[in-house]
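Quality-control log, excerpt.
Job 1 of 2 completed; input and output follow.
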Amino acid sequence: FKLETMSSYSALGSANGSGGGGGDPYYSFKNDIQVAVSSFTTDFDSWHDMLENTNTFQNRDFKELTESLKSQYKSINRSLKELTKTIETVESNRNNYSSITTQELNDRKSFIKDMKTTINDYRSKMQSDKTREIINQHKREFEESKKETAQQRFSRIKNNEYIENHQMSQEQELKEQDVILDDMHDTLKRLGVHANVINVEIESQTALLDEVDEEMTITGDRLTR
């Protein structure tokens, strides 16, 4: 911007000095600065909204926007300084820039002053003690939110104890069920053995009864003869 601005004004001065015409580059540079300041203002409004309505301590968007505003401020400020130098050049060589009236120079000075006031006002708000205090408060709030209160710690311990006791109770119930199932299995096995013995005994007694019945039948037949 600097080389372009100064070289453009050198060309303008040469043209005026030689009686020729030439386009004043001031308005083009003025428009560029107005656009930059408008963008800077919009970004500052977003930045300020985050500052007031969010916790900025770990807000990446807030940090990135802060860095962007710093960069924009430096760029606009450099442009305004270079534009100020063009005014000084015109003032020190009035004969070479006769097409630029005193009123026009005053208007240009006012424009530069207004733009500087705008960006410096935003910059002052960003660097103010109030802003620092808000950001520090956000940091404290974030750190406090990570701390465990005495009540929270008590609740966490009680909850862990309940979970552990519940798990132990379930394990104990499972063990008791296993013991009961084992006892039932052994009882059923014993009952199965007893049943087999009883069946064998019944079969033996049945066979004896059959033999006795057969002998009685034979004896009866003999007596009837």
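Job 2 of 2 completed; input and output follow.
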Amino acid sequence: IGSARRETSCEVDLDVRIRKLLELPAPEAQVRLAEVREALGKLQRRVSELHGQIRRMQEVTPLPHGWEVRFSADGGRLEFHNHVERRAQWVRPEVPPPWAPRVELLEMPQAIARLGDLIRCADRWWELQGEESRLSILCKRDHLRAAELREQLAASVISNAHLVLTTLNSAARLRGAAGQSAPFGVVVVDEAPQATEPSTLVPLEFARSRRCVLVGDDRQL
């Protein structure tokens, strides 16, 4: 299972991941679940704040060439900076005519920075949401059979993964868990000429992807 973090992918064995989850005592799982939900609430408020700031900047663009809109130091007001004349003002300059050079929203450094923050928030939200799902399952483990508990945990881990690496035949182990997760974006079969058609159908069945890439050299061996 590959989980993308920063610029690299973190390799995690599915069985090891589930075993570590099952070792977590129920009281600790409940405490951690409360912490994760609190973090999700803070993250949601931060996303709303960023959306609001980007929307405010969008409402005052485009600007004439050489201008930039920024938030003031306290973050409450918009400042308009004229880099040509090297001055700033609170009032929005006149909107440039259609034929005149202009500066759009995505050319504003602060707008780009806030969009980057939104992307990072989305990645963090995805990570916390997956953890919340697994902790919720652990908190109700007393009401689940052992096989059902492991299958639900596996489904949660797979749903939160960016990459799933498996052999064609061992992919059959993931059929039950993958059926509870969202469809995969794409299936890539390496060394495809060495695989049989029935074995190739195994990952295609549970991945439920509309795209499949077969990679290999049919003259390699």
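Post-run check on job 2. Helices lie at 14-22, 26-59, 109-139, 146-159, 175-178, 197-207.
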